[in-house]
Amino acid sequence: MRGPRGGIILMKNDFENKEGIKDNKGNLKMMSDIINLSVFPGIQGGPLEHVIAAKAVSFFEILQPEFTAYANQIIANAKAMEKAFNNKNYNIVSGGTDNHLLLIDLRNKNVSGKKAENTLVKADITINKNMVPFDDKSPFITSGMRVGVPALTTRGLKESDMSQIVEWIDIILSDIENQSKIEQVKIEVNEFMKSFPLYKNWIQ
């Protein structure tokens, strides 16, 4: 959604809870009261008004035709990235993706998720370490990495750009201790992304 953290709970008509939870007067509590108290003070410190406003903006954006195009482009980019990783013999968990991210098992590359994350970020490439099925490493190390395309798609990258992203990732993971390659990829990444500014009228 490209919105703030958090969520929203919707319900139609209020009703008495079916768990038999009662208030101090012995009356069955309404479901809305139970939900409200569970959220605050249960798990939330307070209603942050700037986050509520950000959710409203996010919901408005979702209703625009541009968001549908964005969502479709995310799937197209993810499928293009899937193909590029498969072409380089990476093991994608579940065999592929049908959403915005790919979970990749790195065990056949002899690289841990933590090492991949910490090294790729030196080249200004952001991924996350992630456990994979039957992982024999701890959650702090992991045998996999998670790669997403929403940020790339927001910047304007298309399917044809995904193979270049994967190429840079593969260059580093294939020779992960080679500092000169990391530096070279970083230069190329930053030069490439100049064509996809965060804001077209960037204030220097």
Counting copies of identical and different chains, the oligomeric state is single chain
The CATH superfamily label of the largest domain reads Aspartate Aminotransferase, domain 1
User: Class of the largest domain, according to the CATH hierarchy?
Assistant: Alpha Beta
Structural class: alpha+beta
Determine the N-to-C terminus distance: 28 Å
Q: What Rg do the Cα atoms give? A: 22 Å
Helical residues, percent: 40-55%
Measured by DSSP, the beta-strand proportion falls in 5-15%
Topology, number of strands: 4
Q: Structurally, how many domains make up the residues?
A: 2
Stretches where pLDDT falls below 50 for ≥5 residues? Answer: none
Give the topology string: H per helix, E per strand. Answer: HHHEEHEEHHH
The main sheet comes to: 4 strands, antiparallel
Based on the structure given, which CATH architecture of the largest domain is correct? Alpha-Beta Complex
